[in-house]
Amino acid sequence: MDIYLHFGNRSSSRAESAHAKLKQYLQVSTGGFQDVTEMICLAIKYEFNEIKVKLASERIQVLHNCDAPVFRELLCRVSHFALKEIHMQYEKINTGTMTPCTGHFMATMALPCAHKIKHLEGMTLSLDLVHPQWRIDTLRLNSKDNLHNDGAKEFDELLSELSSRYQMWPQSKK
């Protein structure tokens, strides 16, 4: 039985997708070390900006089907994907399509299932019922954050080490 927390990810296609996107930026397989480094940095910056834009959008947009009072505490604080998943569970109550609880949904998605929502009937769903994975209100994605700067420093040190090792290779391996 699938009982492990995986947040809905069941395949490696995300890694494969990231690899394909990186290959788009590199364009050729014969670039020099500096060129490849610059292209990878460009790809990372672009993806980082795309994530920031998407999060900013989700912080201000309210999904039209999640405007019921039960979702009030979750709006603009939880990702749209998570809200849609919770809404599907909520709809099971309204349509009478609930099946006996197996605990599967809550164990794998870390979101409240239809049974939990029904148990809290008449109450607003608390933010505590949602795993931090799905939270968008606490994410800080500014390039000025210390965490990002430390990461940039580590990345530069790694590139420097790789470059020095590369220089020691025989010409035939380069």
Question: Would you kindly provide a written description of the structure presented here, covering whatever features stand out?
Answer:
With 174 residues, the protein is an all-alpha fold. It has one domain. The chain is 53% helix and 0% strand. Helix 1 crosses helix 2. The longest helix has 28 residues.
What descriptors fit this protein?
174 residues, mainly alpha, 0% strand, elongated, Protein FAR1-RELATED SEQUENCE
Task: Briefly characterize the structure.
The chain has 174 residues and is mainly alpha-helical.
Radius of gyration: 22 Å
Proportion of beta-strand residues: under 5%
Overall residue-averaged pLDDT value? 83
Low-confidence stretches: none
Give the domain tally. 1
Number of helices: 6
Protein name: Protein FAR1-RELATED SEQUENCE
Organism: Lactuca sativa
How do the strands and helices of this protein lay out in sequence?
Blueprint: H1 13-26, H2 33-60, H3 80-95, H4 104-109, H5 114-119, H6 146-168
Helix pairs in contact: 1-2
Organism: Lactuca sativa (Garden lettuce)
Protein name: Protein FAR1-RELATED SEQUENCE
